[in-house]
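INFO  loader      accepted 1 record
INFO  loader      residues=167
INFO  predictor   begin
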Amino acid sequence: MSKNKKYYLPGFIFIIFSFYTFYFFRNESDYKVFLLIIITCIATDIGGYIFGKIFKGPKLTKISPNKTYAGMFGSFLLSIIFAIIYFNNLSFFRLAEDGEIGIQLMIIVLFISIASQVGDLTISFFKRKSKIKNTGKIIPGHGGLLDRIDGMIFAFPFMFVLLEIIW
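INFO  predictor   done
INFO  writer      dumping tokens
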């Protein structure tokens, strides 16, 4: 990107914090929250891709020219659908006795989806600034493994901070 290295330390601290929050939710927290974050991030990626390809429409930003408003809407929609399936149809994950999903949970899912999309756009910005197209060859025809986890890099710390504020 540039020869100025003043962003290395904050970036390194953020990545370490992100991995800590991943570890925290995996080991110290309830596994339901850990799985909710992962499922929401995956649904956000899938929903954005499918709705963006099918409905096309106006572009969301110049940072990532393939992102559309239809994809953003699809990300929100599919993440909510996956959360409902996750909590209502899988009885061993059920949170409430009556099986109803509260509006607060849907708002949290939307916030996780927003954090995932912000992470995706931020990593795309840094890749574009660094003139890097793909970050690996593990997934052929794809942007690399980083494209699978870029939303999670932001969603786990966001959820950690959100839960610390709420609880």
